[in-house]
Design goal:
CATH architecture of the largest domain: Orthogonal Bundle
Structural class: mainly alpha
Largest sheet: none
Helix content: 55-70%
Oligomer: single chain
Distance between the termini: 27 Å
Amino acid sequence: MTSSSGKKGVGISAAADMLNGLDKENRDRVLEIMIKKDPSLAHLIEEQMVKIDDLKTMTNNMLQDFVKVVSMEKLGMALKFGEESTLEFFLSKLSRSMSEDLKFYYDKKVPREKAQEAYQEVMNKIREMVDQGKLVLGGDQDEFV
């Protein structure tokens, strides 16, 4: 690997970190522009980004730690911006009462701004836990021993 490709990898990671810090609407807008200008670079950056749908790759232990620090209300609102399969993941893994709470907040009509704030709070907590090594997302779980 040449040093320029190494620098590019660092740049991709830095760009993904910056985009992760944006709210969903602005992040999606920036990604859309990037896809039009350089689809392959946009794809590489997107692969490095933490997304709410990455939560489906959590182990049961990670899930237990995660729900200790994120309320079902915030998570339910945040999941409105993810795939339905991510909601189904949580509903299948959580206790009955937690699943009912999560589904209640997911189905509840709230102003878009309030849901976006919840999404941002949940994503901030996800990134914090990833940085602390408490969550490992998106990878092949078999590569960990």
